[in-house]
Amino acid sequence: MIPFIIAIVLIIWREEPILPLLLSIFVALWILYRFNPVSAFLKLVGFAIANSLGETDNILLIIMIAEVLILFYLFREGGHIKALIGIKRYKKLSRYIIEYIMIGFSFLLSFEERLSTLMSGVFLKAFVSEKGITKERFSFLINNLGPSFYTLIPLTLFTPIVTRIIGGSLSSLGIDYPSLKIYLHSIPFQFYNIFSLIIIASSSILKKDIIPIANPIKKDSSLNSTKANLSKEKEDKNAYSLVIAPYKKIGRKPDKINDSLYSAGISFVVTIIALVTTAVFLIAQFYKGKLIEVQNFEKIFTAAIFGGILYYIIYSLIFRSISIKELSTKDNCNAKTLIVIFYIILSLALLFIAKKLEIFSKLTEIIFSSGKINLSWYPLIFFFISALSSFLTGSRITVLYILIPIAFKLISLNLPDPLIINYSHYAVLGAIISGSSFGIINSPLSLIFIISTASSELSIKTHFVSQIYYSAIALVFSALFGYLLSFFNISPYLSITMGLIFISSFFTFGKRFLAGN
Asked: What's the CA gap between 210 and 222, in Å, rounded?
């Protein structure tokens, strides 16, 4: 019976792809309904986790996190951190001076963005908590400083990675040009990273926040501390931490139901987006007069199902709608640290799958396949594609490996001489790098996001909300004053100057304007 059904499905698949698609969705829903989704998911991604942990960089990341946690534990047990906080000269420092120290500390550690975020989060938290800086403010700083500095300074580990990608892309096109020179010319076009740093500097220098949800800096530190203490009980429910702290379970059933619906809704949206991408891909092939390639269809469909399951499991774990009793016992001091490591492994598994599926490379080829898009629009388009893809995958390097070769190929096809390097290469490269920063800063699957959330001991939702408003401001300013103006071949330094003026004015008068409305 089973071989007969399989034979029919294969015949239908060859004739009409939509029928096996519906059948597969039905089977997937039945499996999720009938069996334990956690067990099924772990079996599904077991191969991906094993392979992702087999990569040297990922092993070094896990070792690095373990070493920092052990070092912090030894310092705390030995009383060194408490002694440092008790030194009088630290007591004389205002919270604004502490913020400047955080900026300088992140700058000095910017040679590796994850290490910068981890070290800043673990070691500076003991100092900022004594100065009345809220958790939201702290998470905002450590989450944005490391990734923003990382790509703007040529002396970081990012330089050999991106130059290798650029060199491979150019050699495949037969272009002989120094990849380091292209990268250096692209730095002024990384508008999102530059504007993010300007926003942080404006907020610290002017000593104000304009977004109410981001817990603005208060002049009365006692009031600030009181509000933080009142909200601590609520936030600890959903927080996971790199600092050892007792775990508290959510005992209210309605909250669990709502969180389950939320995670299921996210899963549904992700699956629908992937299936819509499939439809666009098939329609594009149809109008180009090509036969439907079932292999590519299978890739995108597999990604849709896998992405839906992945988001459901991760959000369920985040909001505690699935019990993890082995890790959530009240007396287990290392519970939250183990949960952080578990999230990191899931993110690495998704990164491994994203490299294999190459969905965004297919989507990008579809967008630019008509050849009717003006070359001046490329920076803006690639900026948004990079931001979206890095947000969905939680990875910067994967996005760069996929988009940079495609971008350079498309630029060469639209130039009179395909072997020359000009302004367009610099602008598009800066746009791709800049967009990837937005994704890893705001994506719940990003290692930067996970580490900074754990360091600040915030809930996922609170941490995301505290980031997204300022990130959206930087995104809009980058699009308007950066990549949109590149259509008129305006110097990037003029765009940065305009952005600086508007951001400073926004912080100076924006809160007053919002209050007036």
From this structure: 20
**Is 330 part of any domain?**
no
* Shared domain check, 98 and 240: yes
CB 382 within 8 A of CB 432: yes
As a whole number of angstroms, the distance between CA 7 and CA 2 comes to 9
Q: How many CB atoms lie within 10 A of CB 497?
A: 12
Q: Is the dihedral of CA 28, 33, 34, 40 positive or negative?
A: positive
Angle at 363 between CA 362 and CA 368, to 5 degrees: 100
Residue 459's SS3 state is strand
The range of the structural domain enclosing residue 30 comes to 2-34
Domains held by the chain: number: 2
Do 192 and 62 belong to one domain? yes
For 88-146, give the secondary structure using H, E and C. Answer: HHHHCCCHHHHHHHHHHHHHHCCCCHHHHHHHHHHHHHHHHHHHCCCHHHHHHHHHHHH
Taking only the tens of pLDDT, the chain with its 517 residues reads 444 455 555 555 554 455 555 555 556 656 555 555 555 555 555 666 666 666 666 666 676 666 666 666 666 555 555 555 554 445 555 555 666 666 766 666 666 677 767 776 666 666 665 556 677 777 777 778 878 888 888 877 788 888 888 888 888 888 888 888 888 888 888 889 888 888 888 777 766 666 654 444 444 444 444 444 444 444 444 444 444 333 333 344 444 455 555 556 655 666 666 666 656 656 665 555 555 555 555 555 555 666 566 666 555 555 544 444 444 444 454 555 666 666 676 667 666 666 665 655 655 665 665 556 777 788 888 898 888 888 877 778 878 888 888 888 888 888 887 788 888 888 899 999 999 889 888 887 777 887 777 777 777 777 787 778 888 888 888 888 888 877 777 788 888 888 888 877 777 765 554 444 4
